[in-house]
């Protein structure tokens, strides 16, 4: 059985929607009301009662700006919660698949980032996500940490839904053009993860080969400005997008200016083909 924590979040719901396409797997979807990952005893009890074979952790504290004023809450979920899951997975001898963020990077490199590039997280969210990765790998080396970026889906809090909502009553929007990265369509990421699990179950890949840090986003490169423009182009909306600089749109937490992820490692190891971000955006927009 695959235990999926944080099942009602943006990414968690994508796994739920995909489950029917992977009938060979039994899932247990646990939302925050079913399992608080930061409660160590509850996690231990849950593992003893349910005996999962895999754990996919979609639970996280993701309010990037709010985290600046709630560091303890962010740490509780992103560090303590992740450590609890990793400990329970280590005890049960099962793999943990966990998600982290491109925000762990904040360097000056402007070529696609590799998993071995130096990290320099700025802000509470980014620092707690990095600490969570490290805590998980320290207690359970068979943790697969997938760093991803700019995640969106037809549901949840995300940039696509925000742009469409704002466009409904504003003729023009100002969007930063000096933060460069790649959007990730959450259903693509969920499908990649289930494909990887399938390869392990089919013995094409050893469970130990999942260990460590991996990158996943869609292919291609964009600024947030380009992303917004593509949303309005594809939806044929007349909204004008004006490029602005990050300094004109100050936020409590800093975002990395460049966080394009190099996906060479995950593609080569698991034979994945990753769609271009525009192709996946088009798919997502069909829902609206
Ligand atoms: N969204 C992005 O752009 C982005 C970018 C890079 C990486 N990521 C990473 O991708 C992963 C999935 O993100 P997402 O966009 O799906 O986030 P999300 O929509 O905010 O979902 C997170 C889920 O975690 C749950 N949660 C919070 N605290 C919990 C706890 N103590 N125990 C159990 N569940 C808890 C939340 O439930 P409640 O709502 O009930 O609290 C929520 O359903 C996260 O690890 C995130 O850091 C996201």
Describe the structure.
Helix 1 (10-18) crosses helix 6, helix 2 (40-50) packs parallel to helix 3 and helix 3 runs parallel beside helix 4 (124-139). The chain has 288 residues and is of the alpha/beta class. The protein has one domain: 3-Layer(aba) Sandwich (Rossmann fold), CATH 3.40.50.720. The protein is globular. The two termini are 33 Å apart. Strands 2-1-3-4-5-10 form a 6-stranded parallel β-sheet, sandwiched between helices. The chain has helices at residues 10-18, 40-50, 71-92, 124-139, 159-167, 186-201, 224-234, 264-270, 277-285; strands spanning 2-5, 27-30, 54-57, 96-101, 143-148, 151-152, 172-176, 180-181, 184-185, 212-215, 222-223, 240-244. 45% of the residues are buried. 38% of the residues lie in helices and 16% in strands. It has 9 helices and 12 strands. The chain binds NADP nicotinamide-adenine-dinucleotide phosphate.
């Amino acid at each position: 059985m695959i235990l999926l924590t944080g099942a009602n979040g943006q990414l968690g719901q994508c796994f739920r929607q995909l489950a029917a396409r992977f009938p060979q797997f039994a899932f247990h979807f646990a939302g925050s009301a079913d399992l608080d990952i930061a409660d160590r005893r509850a996690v231990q009890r849950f593992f003893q009662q349910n005996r999962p074979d895999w754990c996919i952790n979609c639970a996280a504290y993701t309010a990037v700006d709010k985290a600046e004023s709630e560091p303890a809450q962010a740490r509780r979920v992103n560090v303590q919660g992740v450590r609890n899951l990793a400990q329970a997975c280590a005890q049960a001898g099962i793999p943990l698949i966990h998600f982290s963020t491109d925000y762990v990077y904040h360097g000056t490199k402007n070529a696609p980032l590799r998993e071995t590039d130096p990290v320099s997280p700025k802000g509470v969210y980014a620092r707690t996500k990095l600490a969570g990765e490290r805590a998980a790998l320290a207690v359970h080396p068979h943790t697969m940490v997938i760093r991803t970026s700019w995640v969106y889906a037809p549901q949840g809090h995300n940039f696509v839904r925000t742009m469409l909502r704002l466009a409904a009553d504003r003729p023009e929007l100002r969007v930063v053009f000096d933060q460069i990265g790649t959007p990730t369509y959450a259903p693509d990421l969920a499908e990649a993860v289930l494909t990887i699990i399938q390869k392990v179950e089919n013995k094409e890949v050893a469970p130990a080969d999942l260990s460590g840090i991996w990158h996943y986003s869609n292919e291609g490169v964009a600024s947030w400005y380009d992303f917004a423009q593509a949303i309005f182009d594809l939806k044929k909306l007349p909204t004008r997008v004006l490029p602005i600089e990050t300094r004109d749109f100050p936020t409590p937490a800093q975002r990395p200016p460049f966080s394009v992820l190099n996906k060479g490692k995950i593609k080569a190891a698991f034979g994945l083909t990753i769609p271009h971000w525009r192709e996946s955006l088009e798919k997502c927009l069909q829902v609206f």
